[in-house]
Amino acid sequence: MQNYISQLNEAQQAPVLRKDGPMIVIAGAGSGKTRVLTIRIAYLMSLGVDAFNILSLTFTNKAAREMKKRISDIVGSSEAKNLWMGTFHSIFAKILRIEADKLGYPSNFTIYDAQDSVRLLGSIIKEMQLDKDVYKPKQVFSRISSYKNSLITVKAYFDNPELQEADAMSKKPRMGEIYQQYVERCFKSGAMDFDDLLLKTNELLTRFPDVLLKYQDRFRYILVDEYQDTNHSQYLIVRALSDRFQNICVVGDDAQSIYAFRGANINNILNFQKDYDNVEMFRLEQNYRSTRNIVEAANSIIDKNKTKLDKIVWTANDDGPKIKVHRSLTDGEEGRFVASTIFEEKMNNQLNNNQFAILYRTNAQSRAMEDALRKRDIPYRIYGGLSFYQRKEIKDVLCYLRLVINPKDEEALVRVINYPARGIGDTTVEKLTIAANHYKRSIYEVMQNIDRIDLKLNTGTKNKLKDFVTMIQSFQVIDQNQDAFYLADHVTKKTGLIQELKKDGTPEGIARLENIEELLNGIKDFIDGQKEIDGARGALSEFMEDVALATDLDNDTGDDDRVALMTIHLAKGLEFPHVFIVGMEEDLFPSAMSMSTRSELEEERRLFYVALTRAEHQAYLTYAQSRYRWGKLTDCEPSRFIEEITEHFLDYMTPMEGSRYKPMIDIDIFGDVDKSKLRLAKPTNGTPPKNYSNDEPLFSSNIRKLKPMDGSSPTKGSISESKLNIGNIVLHERFGKGQVVNLEGVGADKKAEIKFEVGGLKKLLLRFAKLDVI
Ligand code: ATP
Ligand code: MG
Fold this sequence. Notes:
Elements: H1 10-17, E1 23-27, H2 33-46, E2 54-57, H3 61-75, H4 77-80, E3 84-86, H5 88-99, E4 110-112, H6 114-127, H7 137-149, H8 154-158, H9 161-169, H10 175-188, E5 191-193, H11 194-207, H12 209-218, E6 221-224, H13 232-242, E7 248-252, H14 267-270, H15 272-275, E8 280-284, H16 292-302, E9 323-330, H17 331-349, E10 356-360, H18 366-375, E11 380-382, H19 392-405, H20 410-416, H21 426-439, H22 443-448, H23 459-481, H24 484-494, H25 497-504, H26 507-534, H27 540-549, E12 563-567, H28 568-571, E13 576-581, H29 598-612, E14 615-629, E15 632-635, H30 640-644, E16 650-652, E17 678-679, H31 701-706, E18 707-708, E19 729-732, E20 736-744, E21 751-756, E22 760-765, E23 771-773
Parallel strand pairs: 1-7, 1-8, 2-3, 2-6, 4-5, 6-7, 9-14, 9-16, 10-12, 10-13, 11-12, 13-14
Antiparallel strand pairs: 14-15, 17-18, 19-20, 19-23, 20-21, 21-22
């Protein structure tokens, strides 16, 4: 047996050693699924399977690169070079370029990013004279995206009265027309959006049996990582391609399915066994990534989900430290806590920045973290959010370059036709757009024929349009003969972009210039790499393809020593020694938008499971008592997910002084207190709890509601936590009315078992529970 196979445990070896046939590996986080895929590919190659015949689909291009590197180390880079590895989008974009003409597209089609799509939809909505507050372009875009991912084409839409009705019900009766317009305009521009890359691949494989056969024959072994997050469109592609040889190996974890909101279908994993004959199912149970505390805490969380496959995850690793829970007064303070903890940990334990990750539910949360890290001079890197390539000045340059490759690209053209200003006004562009729609041609083609179409433009304007066309054509000539760097450098100068920014002279303008320089450096780097590989010219089109499909994660060279900041969604599959999960608050995590149904809440819980299982050694859960949301200071309460972790795995910290205390609480229950007079309270018995050393409000926001503002002591009906008795009827904010049937534990650990009218028996930690005695 190859010695690299001995790097796997027995359970992991089984799916590697089964060479042929359909198989599925279902296993919890950190159990080596990705490692199994990697080694399986190396092993297949050692058995003589040609790299050309292996297709491996990963969640990010970065993951693909890392896998390829590991495989190169085992089988040699000249062999590994030929592997087809990457995301669904990047692999199928490649195939679509090869087969584009069959679908009526040019092989140099543009890939629209979300910005382009939303802008295009905005102008369609405007042209149709619809209310953009009803037809919000972003919402319309995500609706169209979900149609496409469910393979609902425009025709299918109009054939389906139910869909139309649903849109009409949500006050968008013209959705179908917008969809149609959008599809036509993309087609006319020789552009595909992200979802098209999958939709059109499906179209290609169903409409052209010979093409299907060609790729079935080519991809004799197919492997898919993170299978739980494939959507219907991706599922059908995999299904079609693997149909002939049925050598398909998918790995995934139903507990980590977190993209339902984007159409991922957990049933793909659940139904795999029905889709193929003789499926072998493998399970891995040993987690190699995390300490026992983390593994077991994560188990205790996911246990709360009803919809799940039964799985065991255990680890032979050390217990490790408990999960630290920290509260702060504000989100600013939360940021300072995270930054100072990183600072201290680094000092005390000689750690690098890149051993830390800060994970959050929404991108907006990064700001407070960034501020605090900057103040501590801790280098960090934000993944996601606005990527480098979406910055205005960068996108301006890229749009010129897009036009060089595909001048029909309407979004690119509209963006730069008058930037820098060259006297082509909005009215002219409107006229061009109307004509283009009328003739079912691109704006550029209209411009090329401007003398033959009567748009009532004066000669001056016509000449400006002709100059623009001539300029793009001159770039195209250069593109034929020079590499991408030469061309891009030329374009930035010739278009006046550089002069424009120089003229600006403000610090922002200078920063923009530096960004453009950075872009040029990036292009240089890229083409040098290309030239090294196969002596290629380093053509612009190759670079642009890379850019169009780059995610932020992909640009990570991995060797810069920075703290990683990203949303939990992006962190899937990754691992870090120290992980901070910040903003652990109700309405933020779980998100307020995802609490109306059990399945939404379960997806949030899976997201928390993903977050926690990224940590190898130490996890922190932090929350603030108040934070700015939508410009307003909002009171927050701790996330239910903290409460859901078996308490034994948690270690509560003080928020400020670093002294340790168990948050203590008095639940004061008043009768008919005027609620408007309520304020934050100190402990009711007048003596602060041990180690409680400042005037900070106590833990639970329920106190806020209950203490009279004038400071008077409550007169009647007051029951402190210690006085909560068995038999009391209580009201809980979420569970409603119930009766206390049992009490156990003392102080911070005190729990009440309560029988709720709806929801039945629940054990609640009084420290967290929001109870009113009635
Ligand atoms: P996730 O569900 O988060 O994607 P995964 O199941 O893909 O996790 P991997 O990322 O493959 O898990 O493995 C987790 C960690 O454990 C990695 O650092 C990997 O190198 C290590 N690992 C996996 N299997 C073994 C093994 N048999 N011996 C030692 N280390 C292992
Ligand atoms: Mg993995």
